């Protein structure tokens, strides 16, 4: 069994160890077993500092050792103090650089190979975006595109909700969504918007060829210019008592439908 250094009981509570790297506003702290394990497995992640309880360090020992980082063993209470008492950190926190942002051309190449793109129009809740990323990883998306403003940071809360998918799905941020949609269309990608008030239902869409699916924020939905720029608008058929789905559930339904259509 791998042995890690014990917590230093002589250090005053909350003090930074002398050897710890400095954390800056440009760094991000990830937490939770799945999010940290995926980040450790991602060679693009530049690691800065790893804090873990003894149990969590041993649980991820085979992921930690190849990266050449030595975890600082801390108590759960220390992690509560750093991350907040309500944070479900599962005994581990990893401080890293943010991932390098992929260029749009990378996502276009992925989409040309038949993988759908997911686009979010000012969806601000990190739990929703994390859940959408997880669905995108499950169903093999070309990437996720979000607006640079009015989108959640790619931080620990989002990464934990994504359950490791932040390391697997490229995320591109755009300043001008309408212009980007036009660029996608010029590259042969069909852009469809999900809108609860649309006349056509998603079940009737062909969903063939290079495809981008765009979803708006809950409540507001797609902005007017975004909806106007789409090639088609569809709604998800909802025969039940409630008329609409949570945005992350809507994304999962749409991606599953695309995957099933392309299987056969």
Automatic annotation (TrEMBL):
Cited InterPro entries: Alpha/beta_knot_MTases, Ribosomal_eL30-like_sf, rRNA_MeTrfase_TrmH, SpoU_MeTrfase, SpoU_subst-bd, tRNA_m1G_MTases_N
Keywords from the named record: Methyltransferase, Transferase
A Gene Ontology term for the protein's cellular component: cytosol
A Pfam family per the record: SpoU_methylase
An annotated GO BP: methylation
Domain RNA 2-O ribose methyltransferase substrate binding: 29-102
SMART domains in the record: SpoU_sub_bind
Any GO MF annotation of the entry: RNA methyltransferase activity
PANTHER family: 23S RRNA (GUANOSINE-2'-O-)-METHYLTRANSFERASE RLMB
This protein's name: RNA methyltransferase
Lineage: Bacteria, Pseudomonadati, Pseudomonadota, Alphaproteobacteria, Hyphomicrobiales
């Amino acid at each position: 069994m791998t042995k890690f250094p014990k917590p230093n009981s002589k250090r005053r509570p909350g003090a930074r160890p002398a050897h710890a790297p400095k954390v800056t506003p440009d760094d991000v702290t990830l937490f939770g077993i799945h999010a940290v394990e995926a980040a450790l497995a991602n060679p693009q992640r530049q690691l800065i500092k790893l804090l873990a309880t003894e149990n969590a360090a041993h649980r991820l020992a085979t992921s930690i050792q190849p990266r050449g980082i030595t975890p600082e063993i801390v108590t759960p209470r220390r992690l509560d103090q750093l991350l907040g008492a309500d944070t479900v950190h599962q005994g581990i926190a990893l401080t890293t650089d943010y991932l390098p942002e992929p260029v749009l051309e990378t996502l276009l190449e992925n989409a040309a190979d038949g993988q759908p793109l997911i686009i979010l129009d000012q969806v601000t809740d990190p739990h929703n975006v994390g859940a959408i990323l997880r669905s995108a990883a499950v169903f093999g998306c070309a990437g996720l595109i979000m607006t640079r403003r009015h989108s959640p940071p790619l931080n620990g809360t989002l990464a934990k909700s994504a359950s490791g998918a932040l390391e697997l799905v490229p995320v591109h941020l755009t300043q001008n969504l309408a212009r980007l949609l036009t660029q996608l269309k010029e590259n042969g990608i069909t852009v469809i918007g999900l809108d609860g008030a649309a006349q056509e239902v998603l079940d009737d869409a062909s969903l063939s060829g290079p495809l981008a699916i765009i979803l708006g924020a809950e409540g507001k939905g797609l902005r007017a210019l975004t909806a106007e720029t789409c090639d088609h608008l569809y709604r998800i058929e909802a025969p039940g008592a409630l008329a609409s789905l949570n945005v992350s559930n809507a994304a999962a339904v749409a991606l599953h439908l695309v995957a099933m259509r392309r299987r056969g």
